[in-house]
Automatic annotation (TrEMBL):
InterPro entries: Prot_inh_I78. Pfam families: Inhibitor_I78. Residues 52-80 are annotated as: Disordered. It comes from the Eukaryota. This is Uncharacterized protein.
Length: 80
């Protein structure tokens, strides 16, 4: 199995870039402001999962996964 290193093997860039953009913000359909990030600005290959959601086990190193809390605030950002 090949080694996958976000930012090197991924076409999405460095994970820290997305962490800086998203952490602590809420995801909205189209609103953009200091506390909200628009879904339309996320990469084409992404998924938003809430705490406790079931996830598929397929691994896609080019998919951004945005983990949110029950209130919709971004708590973590990963690739896969």
């Amino acid at each position: 199995m090949p080694l996958v290193v976000p930012g090197i093997n991924s076409s999405l860039g460095d994970k820290s870039e997305w962490v800086n953009k998203l952490m602590g913000k809420k995801i909205s359909d189209s609103t953009r402001d200091e506390t909200t990030f628009a879904k339309t600005d996320l990469p084409k290959s992404h998924r938003i999962v809430k705490s406790g959601d079931m996830l598929t086990t397929d691994h896609d190193p080019n998919r951004l996964t945005v983990h949110t809390g029950d209130d919709g605030t971004v708590q973590n950002v990963t690739y896969g």
